[in-house]
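User: Let's play a game. I give you a shape written as C-alpha coordinates, and you guess the letters that built it. Ready? Here's round one.
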Protein backbone atom coordinates (compact mmCIF):
# COMPACT_ATOMS: atom_id res chain seq x y z
CA UNK A 1 0.00 0.00 0.00
CA UNK A 2 3.03 2.29 0.25
CA UNK A 3 2.88 2.77 -3.54
CA UNK A 4 -0.30 4.83 -3.26
CA UNK A 5 1.12 8.20 -2.05
CA UNK A 6 3.68 8.22 -4.85
CA UNK A 7 1.09 7.10 -7.40
CA UNK A 8 -1.33 9.91 -6.57
CA UNK A 9 1.25 12.66 -7.15
CA UNK A 10 0.93 14.14 -10.60
CA UNK A 11 -2.10 12.03 -11.47
CA UNK A 12 -4.11 13.62 -14.31
CA UNK A 13 -7.44 15.15 -13.27
CA UNK A 14 -9.50 12.90 -15.63
CA UNK A 15 -8.14 9.85 -13.81
CA UNK A 16 -9.11 11.24 -10.41
CA UNK A 17 -12.56 12.16 -11.72
CA UNK A 18 -12.93 8.72 -13.28
CA UNK A 19 -12.13 7.10 -9.94
CA UNK A 20 -14.69 9.36 -8.26
CA UNK A 21 -17.34 8.37 -10.79
CA UNK A 22 -16.51 4.72 -10.17
CA UNK A 23 -17.13 5.43 -6.48
CA UNK A 24 -20.55 6.93 -7.27
CA UNK A 25 -21.49 3.99 -9.50
CA UNK A 26 -20.28 1.54 -6.86
CA UNK A 27 -22.44 3.28 -4.25
CA UNK A 28 -25.50 3.00 -6.50
CA UNK A 29 -24.85 -0.65 -7.37
CA UNK A 30 -24.19 -1.47 -3.72
CA UNK A 31 -27.52 0.08 -2.80
CA UNK A 32 -29.45 -1.68 -5.60
CA UNK A 33 -28.17 -5.25 -5.77
CA UNK A 34 -28.63 -6.50 -2.17
CA UNK A 35 -31.96 -4.76 -1.59
CA UNK A 36 -33.71 -5.14 -4.94
CA UNK A 37 -34.70 -8.80 -4.41
CA UNK A 38 -35.99 -7.95 -0.92
CA UNK A 39 -37.91 -4.91 -2.18
CA UNK A 40 -39.36 -6.88 -5.09
CA UNK A 41 -40.56 -9.79 -2.97
CA UNK A 42 -41.83 -7.83 0.04
CA UNK A 43 -43.01 -4.40 -1.17
CA UNK A 44 -43.65 -4.96 -4.87
CA UNK A 45 -45.26 -8.42 -4.49
CA UNK A 46 -43.18 -9.84 -7.33
CA UNK A 47 -42.81 -13.66 -7.39
CA UNK A 48 -39.35 -14.99 -6.63
CA UNK A 49 -39.06 -16.58 -10.06
CA UNK A 50 -39.62 -13.20 -11.74
CA UNK A 51 -36.98 -11.29 -9.77
CA UNK A 52 -34.21 -12.63 -11.96
CA UNK A 53 -36.12 -11.57 -15.06
CA UNK A 54 -36.28 -7.99 -13.72
CA UNK A 55 -32.52 -8.06 -13.16
CA UNK A 56 -32.31 -9.26 -16.74
CA UNK A 57 -34.25 -6.19 -17.90
CA UNK A 58 -31.55 -3.94 -16.44
CA UNK A 59 -28.80 -5.87 -18.19
CA UNK A 60 -31.03 -6.24 -21.24
CA UNK A 61 -31.17 -2.47 -21.65
CA UNK A 62 -27.40 -2.45 -21.74
CA UNK A 63 -27.36 -5.23 -24.31
CA UNK A 64 -29.84 -3.40 -26.53
CA UNK A 65 -27.93 -0.13 -26.36
CA UNK A 66 -24.36 -1.41 -26.61
CA UNK A 67 -24.48 -2.37 -30.31
CA UNK A 68 -25.95 1.05 -31.17
CA UNK A 69 -24.10 3.46 -28.88
CA UNK A 70 -21.33 1.34 -27.35
CA UNK A 71 -18.57 3.05 -29.33
CA UNK A 72 -20.06 6.53 -29.34
CA UNK A 73 -17.31 7.88 -27.08
CA UNK A 74 -14.86 7.26 -29.93
CA UNK A 75 -16.86 9.66 -32.11
CA UNK A 76 -18.30 12.40 -29.91
CA UNK A 77 -15.83 12.26 -27.02
CA UNK A 78 -15.68 10.87 -23.50
CA UNK A 79 -16.98 13.94 -21.62
CA UNK A 80 -20.55 14.18 -23.02
CA UNK A 81 -21.01 10.43 -22.77
CA UNK A 82 -19.98 10.36 -19.11
CA UNK A 83 -22.19 13.33 -18.20
CA UNK A 84 -25.31 12.05 -19.94
CA UNK A 85 -24.95 8.44 -18.86
CA UNK A 86 -24.38 9.39 -15.20
CA UNK A 87 -27.43 11.63 -15.15
CA UNK A 88 -29.55 9.05 -17.00
CA UNK A 89 -28.70 6.19 -14.63
CA UNK A 90 -29.24 8.44 -11.62
CA UNK A 91 -32.70 9.45 -12.82
CA UNK A 92 -33.54 5.80 -13.49
CA UNK A 93 -32.62 4.77 -9.94
CA UNK A 94 -34.75 7.55 -8.50
CA UNK A 95 -37.70 6.62 -10.73
CA UNK A 96 -37.43 3.03 -9.51
CA UNK A 97 -38.40 4.09 -5.99
CA UNK A 98 -41.75 5.40 -7.26
CA UNK A 99 -42.87 2.56 -9.54
CA UNK A 100 -44.86 -0.57 -8.69
CA UNK A 101 -45.65 -3.73 -10.59
CA UNK A 102 -43.65 -5.96 -12.91
CA UNK A 103 -44.31 -4.03 -16.13
CA UNK A 104 -43.45 -0.55 -14.84
CA UNK A 105 -40.36 -1.82 -13.02
CA UNK A 106 -39.19 -3.64 -16.14
CA UNK A 107 -39.51 -0.50 -18.28
CA UNK A 108 -37.58 1.67 -15.81
CA UNK A 109 -34.82 -0.93 -15.50
CA UNK A 110 -34.61 -1.30 -19.28
CA UNK A 111 -34.16 2.47 -19.82
CA UNK A 112 -31.69 2.72 -16.94
CA UNK A 113 -29.64 -0.11 -18.39
CA UNK A 114 -29.50 1.65 -21.76
CA UNK A 115 -27.95 4.70 -20.08
CA UNK A 116 -25.58 2.53 -18.05
CA UNK A 117 -24.28 0.64 -21.10
CA UNK A 118 -21.59 3.24 -21.81
CA UNK A 119 -20.79 4.41 -18.28
CA UNK A 120 -18.17 1.96 -17.03
CA UNK A 121 -16.36 1.32 -20.34
CA UNK A 122 -16.09 5.06 -21.02
CA UNK A 123 -14.62 5.71 -17.55
CA UNK A 124 -11.98 3.05 -18.19
CA UNK A 125 -11.31 4.53 -21.62
CA UNK A 126 -10.83 8.03 -20.20
CA UNK A 127 -8.38 6.66 -17.63
CA UNK A 128 -6.48 4.79 -20.34
CA UNK A 129 -6.35 7.98 -22.47
CA UNK A 130 -4.30 9.90 -19.91
CA UNK A 131 -2.13 7.23 -18.27
CA UNK A 132 0.82 5.22 -19.55
CA UNK A 133 -0.02 1.74 -20.91
CA UNK A 134 2.37 0.13 -18.45
CA UNK A 135 0.35 1.69 -15.60
CA UNK A 136 -3.07 0.53 -16.84
CA UNK A 137 -3.27 -2.60 -14.64
CA UNK A 138 -2.55 -0.46 -11.58
CA UNK A 139 -5.22 2.12 -12.38
CA UNK A 140 -7.77 -0.46 -13.44
CA UNK A 141 -7.13 -2.01 -10.03
CA UNK A 142 -7.64 1.40 -8.41
CA UNK A 143 -10.92 1.70 -10.31
CA UNK A 144 -12.04 -1.49 -8.57
CA UNK A 145 -10.94 -0.06 -5.23
CA UNK A 146 -12.96 3.12 -5.85
CA UNK A 147 -16.01 1.13 -6.89
CA UNK A 148 -15.68 -1.10 -3.85
CA UNK A 149 -15.38 1.93 -1.57
CA UNK A 150 -18.75 3.03 -2.92
CA UNK A 151 -20.07 -0.49 -2.40
CA UNK A 152 -19.16 -0.17 1.28
CA UNK A 153 -21.22 2.97 1.78
CA UNK A 154 -24.03 1.88 -0.55
CA UNK A 155 -25.13 -1.21 1.42
CA UNK A 156 -24.31 0.51 4.73
CA UNK A 157 -26.56 3.47 3.91
CA UNK A 158 -29.09 1.08 2.41
CA UNK A 159 -29.16 -0.92 5.65
CA UNK A 160 -30.16 2.24 7.52
CA UNK A 161 -32.66 3.40 4.90
CA UNK A 162 -34.21 -0.07 4.73
CA UNK A 163 -35.41 0.45 8.28
CA UNK A 164 -37.63 3.22 6.90
CA UNK A 165 -38.43 1.94 3.40
CA UNK A 166 -36.67 -0.33 0.92
CA UNK A 167 -37.69 2.05 -1.89
CA UNK A 168 -35.76 4.92 -0.28
CA UNK A 169 -32.54 2.98 -0.89
CA UNK A 170 -32.94 3.67 -4.62
CA UNK A 171 -33.31 7.41 -3.97
CA UNK A 172 -29.89 7.45 -2.31
CA UNK A 173 -28.26 5.49 -5.13
CA UNK A 174 -29.75 7.71 -7.82
CA UNK A 175 -28.78 10.87 -5.96
CA UNK A 176 -25.16 9.78 -5.81
CA UNK A 177 -25.00 9.26 -9.60
CA UNK A 178 -26.66 12.64 -10.19
CA UNK A 179 -23.89 14.14 -8.09
CA UNK A 180 -21.31 12.31 -10.21
CA UNK A 181 -22.85 13.64 -13.42
CA UNK A 182 -22.80 17.22 -12.10
CA UNK A 183 -19.14 16.90 -11.07
CA UNK A 184 -18.26 15.62 -14.56
CA UNK A 185 -20.11 18.57 -16.10
CA UNK A 186 -18.17 21.08 -14.00
CA UNK A 187 -14.70 19.55 -13.79
CA UNK A 188 -14.01 17.03 -16.58
CA UNK A 189 -12.07 18.02 -19.69
CA UNK A 190 -12.22 15.96 -22.89
CA UNK A 191 -9.59 13.17 -23.01
CA UNK A 192 -10.14 11.70 -26.49
CA UNK A 193 -7.21 13.62 -27.98
CA UNK A 194 -4.65 12.57 -25.36
CA UNK A 195 -1.76 10.17 -25.83
CA UNK A 196 -2.04 6.98 -27.76
CA UNK A 197 -5.78 6.97 -27.26
CA UNK A 198 -6.17 9.95 -29.55
CA UNK A 199 -8.62 9.59 -32.32
CA UNK A 200 -6.49 10.32 -35.33
CA UNK A 201 -7.41 10.26 -38.98
CA UNK A 202 -6.54 6.66 -39.70
CA UNK A 203 -8.77 4.34 -41.66
CA UNK A 204 -10.50 2.82 -38.64
CA UNK A 205 -12.04 6.17 -37.79
CA UNK A 206 -13.89 6.21 -41.08
CA UNK A 207 -15.73 3.00 -40.26
CA UNK A 208 -19.31 3.47 -39.16
CA UNK A 209 -22.19 1.22 -38.36
CA UNK A 210 -22.71 -1.88 -36.31
CA UNK A 211 -19.50 -3.63 -37.28
CA UNK A 212 -17.42 -0.70 -36.01
CA UNK A 213 -19.29 -0.63 -32.70
CA UNK A 214 -19.09 -4.36 -32.01
CA UNK A 215 -15.44 -5.27 -32.62
CA UNK A 216 -16.10 -8.73 -31.18
CA UNK A 217 -17.75 -9.55 -34.51
CA UNK A 218 -14.51 -8.68 -36.31
CA UNK A 219 -11.89 -9.74 -33.78
CA UNK A 220 -12.06 -13.43 -33.01
CA UNK A 221 -9.51 -13.12 -30.20
CA UNK A 222 -11.73 -10.64 -28.36
CA UNK A 223 -14.84 -12.74 -28.90
CA UNK A 224 -13.12 -15.82 -27.48
CA UNK A 225 -11.84 -13.89 -24.47
CA UNK A 226 -15.24 -12.39 -23.70
CA UNK A 227 -16.99 -15.73 -24.09
CA UNK A 228 -14.93 -17.16 -21.24
CA UNK A 229 -15.50 -13.99 -19.21
CA UNK A 230 -19.28 -14.45 -19.51
CA UNK A 231 -19.09 -18.11 -18.50
CA UNK A 232 -16.89 -17.37 -15.47
CA UNK A 233 -18.91 -14.38 -14.28
CA UNK A 234 -22.39 -15.90 -14.63
CA UNK A 235 -21.96 -18.21 -11.68
CA UNK A 236 -20.04 -15.63 -9.65
CA UNK A 237 -23.03 -13.33 -10.01
CA UNK A 238 -25.19 -15.85 -8.13
CA UNK A 239 -23.52 -14.72 -4.91
CA UNK A 240 -25.07 -11.26 -5.17
CA UNK A 241 -28.39 -12.35 -6.70
CA UNK A 242 -29.18 -15.41 -4.58
CA UNK A 243 -27.62 -14.80 -1.15
CA UNK A 244 -30.23 -12.16 -0.13
CA UNK A 245 -33.04 -14.66 -0.75
CA UNK A 246 -31.03 -17.60 0.64
CA UNK A 247 -30.25 -15.77 3.89
CA UNK A 248 -33.75 -14.36 4.32
CA UNK A 249 -35.54 -17.68 3.73
CA UNK A 250 -33.18 -19.45 6.13
CA UNK A 251 -33.81 -16.78 8.77
CA UNK A 252 -30.08 -16.07 8.93
CA UNK A 253 -29.94 -12.35 8.08
CA UNK A 254 -32.37 -9.44 8.04
CA UNK A 255 -32.40 -6.95 5.13
CA UNK A 256 -30.04 -4.73 7.13
CA UNK A 257 -27.80 -7.72 7.78
CA UNK A 258 -27.64 -8.46 4.05
CA UNK A 259 -26.55 -4.88 3.41
CA UNK A 260 -23.87 -5.15 6.09
CA UNK A 261 -22.63 -8.40 4.55
CA UNK A 262 -22.09 -6.85 1.13
CA UNK A 263 -20.57 -3.72 2.68
CA UNK A 264 -18.05 -5.99 4.38
CA UNK A 265 -17.19 -7.67 1.07
CA UNK A 266 -16.59 -4.28 -0.54
CA UNK A 267 -14.43 -3.16 2.40
CA UNK A 268 -12.34 -6.28 1.93
CA UNK A 269 -11.71 -5.29 -1.70
CA UNK A 270 -10.74 -1.76 -0.71
CA UNK A 271 -8.25 -3.05 1.84
CA UNK A 272 -6.68 -5.83 -0.21
CA UNK A 273 -7.05 -5.03 -3.95
CA UNK A 274 -3.75 -3.22 -4.41
CA UNK A 275 -1.90 -5.74 -2.27
CA UNK A 276 -3.33 -8.57 -4.37
CA UNK A 277 -2.45 -6.66 -7.56
CA UNK A 278 1.18 -6.35 -6.48
CA UNK A 279 1.28 -10.04 -5.63
CA UNK A 280 -0.31 -10.88 -9.00
CA UNK A 281 2.37 -9.06 -10.99
CA UNK A 282 4.65 -12.11 -10.78
CA UNK A 283 1.97 -14.67 -11.64
CA UNK A 284 0.68 -15.86 -15.01
CA UNK A 285 -2.86 -15.21 -16.19
CA UNK A 286 -3.69 -18.92 -15.93
CA UNK A 287 -2.37 -19.04 -12.35
CA UNK A 288 -4.57 -16.08 -11.41
CA UNK A 289 -7.77 -17.38 -13.00
CA UNK A 290 -7.31 -20.86 -11.55
CA UNK A 291 -6.79 -19.26 -8.13
CA UNK A 292 -9.97 -17.27 -8.62
CA UNK A 293 -11.80 -20.43 -9.65
CA UNK A 294 -10.64 -22.33 -6.56
CA UNK A 295 -11.77 -19.47 -4.31
CA UNK A 296 -15.22 -19.36 -5.94
CA UNK A 297 -15.62 -23.15 -5.76
CA UNK A 298 -14.75 -23.07 -2.05
CA UNK A 299 -17.39 -20.35 -1.53
CA UNK A 300 -20.05 -22.43 -3.29
CA UNK A 301 -19.15 -25.50 -1.24
CA UNK A 302 -19.58 -23.55 1.99
CA UNK A 303 -22.95 -22.16 0.89
CA UNK A 304 -24.16 -25.61 -0.17
CA UNK A 305 -23.19 -26.98 3.24
CA UNK A 306 -24.95 -24.34 5.34
CA UNK A 307 -26.67 -20.92 5.21
CA UNK A 308 -25.19 -20.00 8.60
CA UNK A 309 -23.72 -16.54 9.13
CA UNK A 310 -20.17 -17.92 9.25
CA UNK A 311 -20.66 -19.63 5.89
CA UNK A 312 -22.09 -16.46 4.33
CA UNK A 313 -19.19 -14.32 5.55
CA UNK A 314 -16.59 -16.83 4.40
CA UNK A 315 -18.29 -17.22 1.00
CA UNK A 316 -18.45 -13.50 0.19
CA UNK A 317 -14.83 -13.17 1.36
CA UNK A 318 -13.65 -15.90 -0.99
CA UNK A 319 -15.61 -14.45 -3.92
CA UNK A 320 -14.16 -11.00 -3.21
CA UNK A 321 -10.66 -12.47 -3.42
CA UNK A 322 -11.56 -14.15 -6.72
CA UNK A 323 -12.68 -10.83 -8.19
CA UNK A 324 -9.52 -9.13 -6.96
CA UNK A 325 -7.47 -11.66 -8.90
CA UNK A 326 -9.27 -11.41 -12.25
CA UNK A 327 -10.90 -7.98 -12.10
CA UNK A 328 -8.02 -5.81 -13.42
CA UNK A 329 -6.79 -8.60 -15.70
CA UNK A 330 -9.72 -8.58 -18.13
CA UNK A 331 -9.78 -4.84 -19.07
CA UNK A 332 -6.00 -4.90 -19.36
CA UNK A 333 -6.21 -7.78 -21.86
CA UNK A 334 -9.02 -6.05 -23.80
CA UNK A 335 -6.99 -2.85 -23.97
CA UNK A 336 -4.04 -4.86 -25.28
CA UNK A 337 -6.14 -5.99 -28.24
CA UNK A 338 -7.63 -2.58 -29.01
CA UNK A 339 -6.40 -0.33 -31.84
CA UNK A 340 -5.85 3.15 -30.42
CA UNK A 341 -8.72 4.75 -32.37
CA UNK A 342 -11.17 2.05 -31.28
CA UNK A 343 -10.34 1.81 -27.59
CA UNK A 344 -13.80 2.87 -26.41
CA UNK A 345 -15.45 0.42 -28.84
CA UNK A 346 -13.38 -2.48 -27.51
CA UNK A 347 -14.11 -1.49 -23.92
CA UNK A 348 -17.80 -1.29 -24.84
CA UNK A 349 -17.61 -4.80 -26.32
CA UNK A 350 -16.15 -6.05 -23.04
CA UNK A 351 -19.01 -4.31 -21.26
CA UNK A 352 -21.41 -6.47 -23.29
CA UNK A 353 -19.88 -9.50 -21.61
CA UNK A 354 -20.57 -7.97 -18.21
CA UNK A 355 -24.12 -7.13 -19.30
CA UNK A 356 -24.68 -10.74 -20.33
CA UNK A 357 -23.44 -11.81 -16.92
CA UNK A 358 -25.80 -9.38 -15.20
CA UNK A 359 -28.67 -10.62 -17.35
CA UNK A 360 -28.10 -14.36 -17.36
CA UNK A 361 -26.59 -14.64 -13.89
CA UNK A 362 -29.57 -13.50 -11.78
CA UNK A 363 -32.08 -15.12 -14.15
CA UNK A 364 -30.42 -18.52 -14.03
CA UNK A 365 -29.45 -18.24 -10.36
CA UNK A 366 -32.90 -17.33 -9.06
CA UNK A 367 -34.54 -19.90 -11.33
CA UNK A 368 -32.27 -22.61 -9.91
CA UNK A 369 -32.96 -21.34 -6.40
CA UNK A 370 -36.71 -21.56 -7.02
CA UNK A 371 -36.21 -25.27 -7.82
CA UNK A 372 -33.99 -26.00 -4.81
CA UNK A 373 -32.23 -23.58 -2.40
CA UNK A 374 -28.85 -25.26 -2.73
CA UNK A 375 -28.99 -25.97 -6.45
CA UNK A 376 -27.16 -22.76 -7.58
CA UNK A 377 -24.14 -23.62 -5.44
CA UNK A 378 -23.98 -27.26 -6.53
CA UNK A 379 -24.40 -26.42 -10.23
CA UNK A 380 -21.89 -23.57 -10.03
CA UNK A 381 -18.92 -25.70 -8.98
CA UNK A 382 -18.26 -27.50 -12.32
CA UNK A 383 -19.14 -24.35 -14.28
CA UNK A 384 -16.50 -22.30 -12.46
CA UNK A 385 -13.88 -25.05 -12.79
CA UNK A 386 -14.21 -25.14 -16.58
CA UNK A 387 -14.49 -21.38 -17.03
CA UNK A 388 -11.45 -20.49 -14.94
CA UNK A 389 -9.19 -22.69 -17.08
CA UNK A 390 -10.60 -21.33 -20.33
CA UNK A 391 -10.38 -17.70 -19.19
CA UNK A 392 -6.74 -18.03 -18.17
CA UNK A 393 -5.79 -19.55 -21.52
CA UNK A 394 -7.71 -16.88 -23.46
CA UNK A 395 -6.08 -13.99 -21.58
CA UNK A 396 -2.64 -15.50 -22.17
CA UNK A 397 -3.38 -15.80 -25.90
CA UNK A 398 -4.63 -12.21 -26.03
CA UNK A 399 -1.33 -11.01 -24.63
CA UNK A 400 0.81 -13.10 -26.95
CA UNK A 401 -1.19 -12.22 -30.09
CA UNK A 402 -1.20 -8.43 -29.50
CA UNK A 403 1.05 -6.94 -32.14
CA UNK A 404 1.71 -3.82 -34.20
CA UNK A 405 -0.67 -4.94 -36.93
CA UNK A 406 -3.64 -4.16 -34.71
CA UNK A 407 -2.93 -0.50 -34.14
CA UNK A 408 -0.31 1.96 -33.01
CA UNK A 409 -0.96 1.46 -29.31
CA UNK A 410 -0.75 -2.32 -29.43
CA UNK A 411 2.91 -2.93 -28.52
CA UNK A 412 2.63 -0.72 -25.45
CA UNK A 413 -0.68 -2.24 -24.44
CA UNK A 414 0.76 -5.71 -24.81
CA UNK A 415 3.55 -4.63 -22.48
CA UNK A 416 0.91 -3.60 -19.96
CA UNK A 417 -0.44 -7.14 -19.83
CA UNK A 418 3.09 -8.50 -19.56
CA UNK A 419 3.71 -6.23 -16.58
CA UNK A 420 0.50 -7.43 -14.94
CA UNK A 421 1.50 -11.03 -15.50
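Assistant: Ready! My guess for every position:
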Amino acid sequence: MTILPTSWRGLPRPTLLGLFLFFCAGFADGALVPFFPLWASSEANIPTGAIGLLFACYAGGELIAAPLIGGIADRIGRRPVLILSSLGVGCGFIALSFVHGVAATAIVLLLTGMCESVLHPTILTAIADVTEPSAHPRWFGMARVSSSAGQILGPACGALLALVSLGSVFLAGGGMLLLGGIVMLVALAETAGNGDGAGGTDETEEEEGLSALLPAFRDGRLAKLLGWVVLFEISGNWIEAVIPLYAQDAGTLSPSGVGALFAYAAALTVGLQMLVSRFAETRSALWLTVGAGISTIAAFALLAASPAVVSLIAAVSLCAVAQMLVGPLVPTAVNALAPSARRASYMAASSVAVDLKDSLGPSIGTALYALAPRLPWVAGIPLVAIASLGLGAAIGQARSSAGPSEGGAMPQAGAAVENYR
